[in-house]
């Protein structure tokens, strides 16, 4: 028991170091290719996205961790918990995306002071929603004590985001809209892989 605990803790620490390390390595690239204003907007939208993620999903991942972990032997119950949480989260994020699409100009005016940046609102909310769903999958794996798979998902997610961002930043434009688009492409590719897995 202690051996598994230490092994899983080590794996989660490695994953956290890897994902944070990639973020740290991407920072100079983002600050080099984005203007100060664009990077500020990027960071601001990330902060808002983190806040919204807590509100939209109502921390349902905490429920998964508690009930799935407590009922390891009842796979039917665990599947129902995970399925309910997934559909609940997907439905809530779909509603948020729809509201942001319908009111993107008003939201852009409120948050960014410019209604013409409504495309950033839409692309940012799609980005945050996709990232939240990948996080839900990761939490599900962790609740089932599948540390290796959870670590692999975290590492692949961070690597895809970094690679897609780097490739597309070098090949295409350097605007914030495109940076967020590349992150969505990476998340979509990862989601497809997870679905096939």
* Residue share in helix: over 70%
Give the overall silhouette.
globular
Could you give the distance between the termini?
28 Å
Number of domains: 1
Tell me how many strands there are: 0
The share of residues in extended strands comes to under 5%
Structural class: mainly alpha
Q: Which residues form runs of ≥5 with pLDDT under 50? A: none
How many helical elements? Answer: 8
Description:
The structure is a single chain. This protein has 197 residues and is mostly helical. It has one domain. It is built from eight helices and no strands. The radius of gyration is 18 Å and the shape is globular.
SSE layout:
Layout: H1 2-33, H2 36-57, H3 60-70, H4 75-102, H5 104-112, H6 118-143, H7 147-171, H8 176-196
Helix pairs in contact: 1-7, 2-6, 3-4, 3-6, 4-6, 5-6, 6-7, 6-8, 7-8
Structure at a glance:
With 197 residues, the protein is mainly α. It contains 8 helices and no strands. The model has no long low-confidence stretch (mean pLDDT 81).
Descriptive keywords:
197 residues; mainly alpha; 8 helices
């Amino acid at each position: 028991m202690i051996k598994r605990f230490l092994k899983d803790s080590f794996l989660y620490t490695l994953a956290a170091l890897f994902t944070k390390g990639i973020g740290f390595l991407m920072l100079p690239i983002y600050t080099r290719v984005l203007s100060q204003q664009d990077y500020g907007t990027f960071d601001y939208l990330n902060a808002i996205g983190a806040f919204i993620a807590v509100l939209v999903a109502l921390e349902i991942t905490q429920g998964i961790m508690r009930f799935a972990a407590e009922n390891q032997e009842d796979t039917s119950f665990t599947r129902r918990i995970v399925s309910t949480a997934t559909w609940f989260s997907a439905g809530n994020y779909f509603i948020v995306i729809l509201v942001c699409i319908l009111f993107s100009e008003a939201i852009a005016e409120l948050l960014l002071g410019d209604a013409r940046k409504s495309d950033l609102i839409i692309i940012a909310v799609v980005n945050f929603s996709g990232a939240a769903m990948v996080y839900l999958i990761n939490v599900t794996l962790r609740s089932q004590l599948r540390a290796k798979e959870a670590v692999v998902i975290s590492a692949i997610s961070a690597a895809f985001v970094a690679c897609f961002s780097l490739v597309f930043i070098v090949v295409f434009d350097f605007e914030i809209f495109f940076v967020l688009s590349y992150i969505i492409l990476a998340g979509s590719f990862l989601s497809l892989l997870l679905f096939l897995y």
